[in-house]
Amino acid sequence: MVGTEVDLRVDNVAHGGWCVGRHDEQVVFVRHALPGERVRARVTSQTKRFLRADAVEIIESSPDRVQPPCPYAGPGKCGGCDWQHASLEAQRRLKGEVVADQLRRIAGIDREVVVEELPGASDGLGWRTRVRFAVDDEGRPGFRRHRSHEVHPVDECAIAHPDVNALGVTDTTWRGFTEVEAITSASHADNAVVVTPRSARLPALPPLRESTAVLRRFKGGRLQQVRGRRGVRETVGDREYRVSAGSFWQVHPGAASALSEAVLDALRPEPGDTALDLYCGAGLFAGALAGAVGPQGRVLGVESESEAARDARHNLRDMPWVRVEQADVGAQLREWVDMRVDVAVVDPPRAGVGEVVAEQLAELRNRRVAYVSCDPATLARDLGAFIGAGYTLEEVRAFDSFPMTHHVECVATLSRE
Ligand SMILES: C[S@@+](CC[C@H](N)C(=O)[O-])C[C@H]1O[C@@H](n2cnc3c(N)ncnc32)[C@H](O)[C@@H]1O
């Protein structure tokens, strides 16, 4: 069926930027459509259980439909954004429905989820402070098409922060490279470019501003400084963070501060408390918690990546009641089995914390947990594990940290007597 076109009405939204409809009793996941629309859709792949398709013609349009602000959005073009064709209000509503649906299906949790807008980038554009461009065989930078290795070359990215576009990555060719990542700070004039050469030899670099730091990525992810600083500085509240180019940092300029506040609201730390920041990256939440628990308390961060752990130690070095362990969270919690903890934030990668870490954390007798998640499916699974271990789910907040895409950031609050 691949390549054929079918006429169908799509009903619901599904996780991943899809809408779901049926054709001849077969389930069809359709991109570039909106719930309620009748569309002509071209089948892009087929499995035993369902079809995937791109809406190539809108026969009956949703009132939520808008003209995509980016010329590269649409079937067969850039695969980066999923919801450019929906108003921002509709995008947030759809993401809220997806989170609620995942919570219900996976964990039996019935909640309405409201996705909150973040400050900055009110048109949903110009927010992304880190952008990885793929490079095609001719050296042109662009983005991969959806579910494909093919690169769609672009002149500019509409969701990239203006300072990312100003780095000029798309104004030049990158022969001999497979990938170029552009990084800018949301609060300082710092920026960096991380290049991945095709072979062991580093090809000549195209002209870049003197002030732009350059790093090289090796297979396996290790970074080497070519020129300038190792990363960028970011300021949140009155604290400055050093973030190495390979370390994680929130990509929306409004996210670091909004999520820190949400974590403090969720945990309500008190002076003297012991707080954990698990998967702490460069120490964002540990910094916020350290201010709240004060010198009578303590904050313990855990981060597996050596550079991120070094960043976190450096960023929080003025508060001796903060300690950062470079370790795997599961391994570290096994060592801390007899420790008494009051509150904990977890902010794992997409895979989530998993049942084992949820149970290990429950054994530390902490009264509150804030779970920060960028994947509603693994969040739902893990919330089920926390509830099974005796916690009550108080609240699920969601933030539009990635406008125009299907991604959404959640902060769930768990507590127990
Ligand atoms: C989503 S980031 C969160 C970082 C930080 N909370 C922030 O907001 O900037 C997840 C972090 O977990 C780290 N990580 C991934 N797996 C880990 C593990 N098993 N144990 C410890 N840290 C891990 C990653 O290196 C990354 O820095």
Automatic annotation (TrEMBL):
Keyword Transcription found: no
Pfam assignment, any one: tRNA_U5-meth_tr
Domain TRAM: 1-57
Gene Ontology BP, a term: rRNA base methylation
Record SUPFAM superfamilies: Nucleic acid-binding proteins, S-adenosyl-L-methionine-dependent methyltransferases
Family: Belongs to the class I-like SAM-binding methyltransferase superfamily. RNA M5U methyltransferase family.
Name of this chain's protein: Class I SAM-dependent RNA methyltransferase
Organism lineage string: Bacteria, Bacillati, Actinomycetota, Actinomycetes, Streptosporangiales
